[in-house]
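Notes continue from the previous slide.

Worked example: a multi-chain complex. Inputs as given:
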Amino acid sequence: MDNSLKKSDNTQKQKLNSEQFAAVQHTEGPVMIIAGPGSGKTRVITERIAHLINIGINPENILALTFTNKAAKEMKARIADLTENNDVFAICMGTFHSIFSKILREEAHIIGYTTNFTIYDNEDSVKIIRRIIKDLNLDKDIYNAKNIFTRISLMKNYIISPKKYLHSETLKKQDLNNKRPEFLNIYRKYCESCKQSNCMDFDDLLINTYDLFKENEEILNKYQTKFQYILIDEYQDTNKVQDEIIKQVSDKNKNVCIVGDDSQSIYSFRGANINNMLNFKKFYSDVKEFKLEQNYRSTQNIVNAANSLIAYNKNKIDKTIFSDKEEGEKIQLLEYYNDREEGQKIATLISNSIQQSTSASQHAVLYRTNSQSKVIEDGLRKLGVKYKIYGGLSFYQRKEIKDIMAFLKLILNNNDDESLLRIFNYPTRGIGLSTINKIRLKAEENNYTIWRTLNSEKINEVHFTKNVKKNIDHFVELLHTIFKSINKNVFEILELVIETTGIVRRLEDNPNPENINRLENISELFNSTKIFSMRSNNDKLIDFINEISLDESTEQKTTHNDYVSLMTIHQSKGLEFPYVYIVGLENGLFPSQQSMREKKQLEEERRLFYVAITRAIKKVIVSYSLNRFKFGSMNQTTQSLFLNEINYYFIKTIKNQKAYKSHSTTFSIPKLNNRKLVKITNNDHNHHYKNLQIGQNILHNVFGKGTIKTIDNSHGNQKIKVLFLEHGEKILLTKFAKFKIIS
DNA sequence: CGGTAGAATATTTTT
DNA sequence: TATTCTACCG
């Protein structure tokens, strides 16, 4: 396990304080635990669940909703330690999305879906909306697909169906003012499209659960009876539908415990509503409230600085967070000439700190936007400091992985139009865009899905050239072949898909660095299906797809385990590090441009800064740059207004003497082409590897140790198949792969 | 139809 | 700057 992310053990060994203890013991009725940063929240939750099990509650009757699936996994492990009960896996524990997707599969038939519905990610959704907008002949600039999707998502989060929208004059007026009178039409079409394709987007997983419970009393009753004890973490970041679902499910037993901190609510852009927490006491009578106010994580200076900042927010629950740890150092405020200098200097600070007896994993760099990671990366790389970036694209969102996943999803759900459209001509098979559009329109005309259209008489009403017709027939035949594999294990299915579609072959035929990287990712996918197929009893395609559709982790794999963590503040939620660097404290960046206009949004940005500061155990370093590169040009900036809100007693400004005559621009840093691919390596080493032999052990820069299994010299590119100790089998091109022979 | 080159456009945060 | 979109030629 990541030691950087593990909570420090000092809180573990101590006894619970009286408030924590009381919160653990008070099991009956509605409970609200307001848990400040570092107050041992996770510990209270795990101990509480363990306590329930230890007093004889059946784990099956516990529902615990967490913010990420990773958190759920870690908590389960801890509860197992506390209960001597191997049955912790019976606890229904996970994110709203993953728990309810399972319930929805179970009950799918009731709401007009089948159990094998597939899940659209945001990219899929936006694509569908883009297509709808185009089909309606609307101006794509006024009807920006992403904006429309965001708005649809917000509607769903607030339980406003197209029907309800119709009754809201306010909403209609809003869209009219935005010159988007067709919004409702798009919304409606989008919903129809999802439903017809037997697909749900992320929001549907919630809204459909809500509707299911609302319209089916027996079903609701079944789950009310099952979930006798309900616990929700991070309640401040729940949205309206989630709040309502909780009310539905807990209505019978009323044993609902919410945990959270209104000051750490940072997801309102996703519909999260701080008022869910603030109104909890109004909705349930006799709520027992606990406040965990002692911060066991940070020094007094850090806690005080954070308190002085958050005091500027109006909308909050009263509480006094305090620390009785050492006073500690003041927050350091650093000013730099530009973003690049900021990256280099912060990297230097970290590097120096590491040399003075701390380890890399004790440091984290936090920023407002993902794009800011680049300059930090450059700085760290130059100094040879190991780092890991959280965020960016999740593995399963990469193009080549999504392409293959589209086949798998289609096997599961033949009517998943979005997946079908994605692979209709991938790999290219002579079916072009105009052909696809013709078929699409024919499908729409009949209210058929594309797959159904392809297999019906209707397809004959469309005119194709002879050749195209042949290609389509081939494609349909190919799909029929792979569809038959649905009941095999995932690994075999994937093998079949790769074999019959020739995806890998095409990439291998053109081994440029980009394709090499894709091949590596695909073999990574192979490995994970292999592991999945071996694991437990669920090797079914449906389980695999469900799991990865809801996989939120965006961690890169690294071979070393001591590294500096780089992530957005949003991702740092719940984590802690001894040394925290918060960069880019500039107006327009943090707080972001959009949020500076509205008070409510500014308060959220302030909470975000609060979250960032309170991640630190020992020391906080804050920085900003007077100039920042944006859209390819340099812009002047001003320091963030938040910096003046921290009481001067807890923060120390250190002016950077060299800032104005920095020579940092005179030498250039090796550039990373982009995040997801291309590790171009030394081709000069080529000749060293000419005499590779089967059975040799090698050390690869990413995959570690492995043994050469086969060598293929055909096609002019030497390819070797290597079995890695930790990463399984991979095919590498010796021309590009970076490795050493070790025996 | 397929591939590519040059243009257009985008940066707030994500289950 | 980096990624995505569009237009055009083979």
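Summary box: The first strand of chain A starts at residue 31 and ends at 35. The CA atoms of residues 126 and 146 of chain A lie 6 Å apart.
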